[in-house]
Amino acid sequence: MITMQEEIVIEELVEAGQAELEQLNALLPQLSRSAPPLGDAEFARIISDPDVHLLVARRDGRMVGSLTLVIFPIPTGSRAIIEDVVVDGGARGGGIGEKMVAHALVVAADAGSRTVDLTSRPDREAANRLYQRVGFELRKTNVYRYQR
After folding, report:
1. Per-residue pLDDT tens for 61-91?
2. Is residue 38 within 8 Å of 66, Cβ to Cβ?
3. How many other C-beta atoms lie within 10 A of the C-beta of residue 85?
4. Which domains, and CATH codes, for the chain?
5. pLDDT, tens digit (0-9, with 9 covering 90-100), for 36-69
6. Is 137 left (phi over 0), alpha (psi -120 to 50) or beta?
7. Are 12 and 58 in contact (CB under 8 A)?
8. What's the rounded Cα separation, in Å, for the pair 85 and 101?
9. Among candidates 103, 104, 101, 105, which has minimal Cα distance to 87?
10. Does the CA dihedral 45-50-55-56 come out positive or negative?
């Protein structure tokens, strides 16, 4: 758990450095056991995409969380979606997820997004409480996925 004295810095990754890639790859298994580690080219592509904002949380310079915000234009207006939110297991419970989501909401608003969507599995109870606490509302909708 993080104490109040430890400063958490939220920033957008704008350079695809090896240290950042290694730290992000260390977080990914906590997000998905089936996701393979990112390679250099994949990481560079994500960082360089102007519609993708890879936000990271750092404590003492070390990456302890990440969140991906994608902002995209559609005929009904600019929209945004938050994906791949992860906080290191040893750092959970200290408000890092909330800080990252709050930062993402500001970035989305500044870009003119009308809405920000996200999904979360029902068994992720703490995450669902966090999203509702910061103002997300549960929508009565079906989520469909086509997978190859």
Report:
1. 999 999 999 999 999 999 999 999 999 999 9
2. no
3. 23
4. 8-133 (3.40.630.30)
5. 999 999 999 999 999 999 999 999 999 999 999 9
6. beta
7. no
8. 9
9. 101
10. positive
